[in-house]
Amino acid sequence: MTALLDYLRENAPGSAYVSLAADVDRFYERFGFEDVALDSKGML
Fold first, then answer.
1. What is the pLDDT of residues 1-17, one digit of tens each?
2. How many domains does the chain have?
3. pTM attached to this predicted model
């Protein structure tokens, strides 16, 4: 995750949208991401 985030910070535009999926509770929160489940919908 650290390498991925470093790459995105260096190469992605500030307006980039990053979508993440993990089956581990609160995994991404450790890296500063927030759960938006109530504010957005997704499909698989």
1. 899 999 999 999 989 88
2. 1
3. 0.58
Grade residue 43 by pLDDT with cuts at 50, 70 and 90.
Answer: low
- Distance CA(1)–CA(3), nearest Å, equals 5
Residue 44: domain span: 1-44
Dihedral Cα 32, 33, 34, 39, nearest 10 deg: 150
Q: Which residues contact 42 (CB under 8 A, 6 or more apart)?
A: 19
At 23, the amino acid letter reads D
Separation CA 9–CA 11 (nearest Å): 6
> How far is residue 21 from each of residues 8, 26, measured CA to CA in Å?
17, 11
